[in-house]
Amino acid sequence: MRRRNTPFDELVTLVVRESEKKIDRIDGQLQAVIGLLKDLKTNPPSGNPQATRHTPASCDPSPGNYTTPSTYAVIEGDSSLAAHCAFANDFVQQAAGAEPLPSSSALDVQETLEALSRVVDALKLPTITDEMVYPHARPVQRPNIGGRELPPFQNALTVIRLAKAQRLAGSGWIYEFILVRDFSEICLNVYFSDDYSETDVIIVNAGLHSLFSDYSNHVPVEEKDTYLEYAHLCRENLETALANLPLQLPASSDYIVALLFGAWHAIELSKPSLSWTLCSKASELCHTLGYHRATSMQTDAPDEIQFKNFLFWSLYFIEKCLSLRLGRPSTIADWDITISRPSTADNHQQPVLAYFALWIESARCQGNIYELLYSADSMNQPCDVRKTRVDLLVSDLANLQKATQETNEKWIETAKKNSGEDLMDFFYISDDVQRLSLLTLIYRAVPRESGSSTTFSPSCLDAARATLARHQDCMTVVNKSGGTYLSTYVHWTLLFSPFIPFIVLFCHIIEARDQTDLDRLGNFVASIQPATDISDAAAKLHRLFQVLHSVALRYLELHASTPDDGQAEGSGEIDRYLAALGLPSPAGQVLQRGFVQSMGSDFSQGVLDMAGMSSGDGQGFINPMMRVGNGANLEHWLYNNQAMWALMEKPDFLPQRPS
Which segments cross the bilayer (predicted)? Predict the structure, then answer.
């Protein structure tokens, strides 16, 4: 009787078909699968798949794999001693070739030049082994993570196949990674072999966590909890492995991949500082290996060049966005990159990679917004310079919008066919929300016109209102999907980059007493209320905007009920609260102490703390950054907006949700 093929046979066939160049490596894995199949013939599995307890002889690679650096060459720039020595070597070689030497001396000169070339070559290529070790350090074995449970292999195979066929999609990096590297082979290694690395553990669990989480939205209700349990299991494995990574990592593409998966995961958790830490390490490894320089890949095969470029630009995307989100200078200098940036004009074979080029362009714009408008140096630029920079960045965003429309015309139908109409509509509209939010941030940097009665330019206010309107369009798609995309929207649009349109309109309400804008804020707060059940970060976001809306509402109510010529006891105190929010109380406004009391202690003390002001009756100390300029100075305003986000991230800003 012919034996029925199992999922394990199918995966082996898939790996062999897709990776014929790696036959030698796969051979060992085939033996493991064959052995497993023999066991299955003797002891067939039960009908209900259970999570696999994976406890190899050594759950993690030997300590040497962690402490011994790789032998990759350190890529040094043109200012290094090695670069100048290389120039000197070329110079003397050319000089020797230009002038004929006596035959008696030619041999000696040639030997000397060859010796020089060898020395220069050695200097040009210091290895990580030489550079990244402490010569007197004693090897110490790192703690073993221990055995890991893995989801049933058959279920893992199902979601991998769907992702490769682009019939499953989401915000995870796995959907791009799976198109350029054989994820199924790495899974095979972790499931059926003891010869795997900690990077394999991170990659497999990060990928499967995303796939199972997304797939849980497409299965019958009775199966949803099962796949969410698989995702949670992978998340525990992933976070345990990431938490045990050492400070010094070998410079290799595997570790860059693992760090990028970790950075993506940290964004899903709304932990931008953690993501920045992982990105910074990945950036260090990329620079060490020269992934940003075309000259470092001159001898590489085309597929290897493609993979290195993919890793670098994936890092570029998340790092540049975090630079703006956190207000930190980027570790990647655009002027130091010599590899080609992905473009929508490239000959893409998959819609995912075409849209990937758009994300890179958006990240470039975000990095430039911080560098040109919000960095410390940019704050000191003359008004005409800042206006020129604003015009340049507005033009960049307009070009991005045009490129997005062109990409949609070419790929949207294919993408909808593969991944679903609702998902692609969601991606398109949420990207539009982010673009409009960035446009608001750019216009916010326009210097205030002399004699202007308002802090914000008409263009800034229009962009902020357009953002909130487009947000409502996006929420329509989110609600149509039953809330499937709400988590992605909150974490990757509202929290991933500075969402300031709400703050801009809030300040404008305080300044201009605009009831229409107040209604916009109220609608926004109501629309994201369902997000409070997604995560603590989402709940805190809702709480922050809810409190700001309450402040604006109460402000207008109390102003309307207070005579213009009255003198309220609490006017001085409310001025301090408005200053803490980045906007002084308009001249002549008098508010009652009830405004302060009605806001509650969590907000009132919080805004004072973030501004460095005392809550006592005496004179408060104002943070030095708030002394710069006058009124709603940009630096003052930016500082306090960042402080509000920091306040939101404090554990005591909102009680933790029950687990």
Answer: 489-510
- Give yes or no: residues 126 and 233 share one domain: no
> Rg of the chain's alpha carbons, rounded to an integer?
29
Helix (H), strand (E) at residue 524? helix 515-527
Is 111 within a domain? yes
| Full DSSP string of 321-345 | HHHHHHT---SS-GGG--SPPP-TT
Residue 536 and residue 560 share a domain: yes
Look at residues 130, 28, 19 and name the one whose alpha carbon lies nearest to residue 69: 130
Same domain, 265 and 199: no
Annotate 500-522 with three-state secondary structure.
Answer: CHHHHHHHHHHHHCCHHHHHHHH
Distance CA 280, CA 266 (A): 13
- Identify which of 629, 570, 620 has the alpha carbon closest to the alpha carbon of residue 594: 570
In terms of Cβ atoms closer than 10 Å to its own Cβ (0-12, 13-18, 19+), residue 39 is exposed
Place of tokens 């790789």: 70
pLDDT in tens, 417-446: 888 888 889 999 999 999 999 999 999 998
pLDDT tens-place string over residues 159-188: 999 988 877 888 889 888 988 888 999 999
Q: Choose among 300, 289, 292, 305: nearest CA to 70.
A: 289
CA 591/CA 598 separation, integer angstroms: 12
Beta carbons within 8 Å of 208's beta carbon, 6+ residues apart: 151, 156, 159, 187, 230, 231, 234
Choose one of 192, 225, 244: the last residue of a domain.
244
Q: Which of 244, 273, 303 is the last residue of a domain?
A: 244
Q: Do 22 and 164 share a domain, yes or no?
A: yes
Local confidence band at 351 (pLDDT 50, 70, 90 cut-offs)? confident
Least confidently predicted of 162-171, 383-392, 608-617, 639-648: 608-617
Give per-residue pLDDT as tens, 371-423: 999 998 998 899 999 999 999 999 999 999 999 999 998 888 888 888 888 88
Specify the number of domains making up the chain: 4
Q: Which domain holds residue 267?
A: 250-325
- Considering the domain boundaries, does residue 308 fall inside one? yes
| Residue in the structure block whose two tokens are 């200012």 | 79
- In this structure, the answer to whether residues 161 and 46 fall within a common structural domain is yes
Inform me whether the pLDDT recorded for 644 exceeds 80. Answer: no
Are 238 and 260 in the same domain?
Answer: no
User: What separation in angstroms does the CA of 419 have from each of 168, 415, 426, 445?
Assistant: 6, 6, 11, 39
Asked if the structure places residue 460 within a domain, the reply is no
Q: What is the pLDDT of residues 100-119, one digit of tens each?
A: 545 555 556 566 666 666 66
Identify whether residues 256 and 309 lie together within a single domain. yes
What tokens does 517 get? 């804008």
Query: What SS3 state is found at 45?
Result: coil
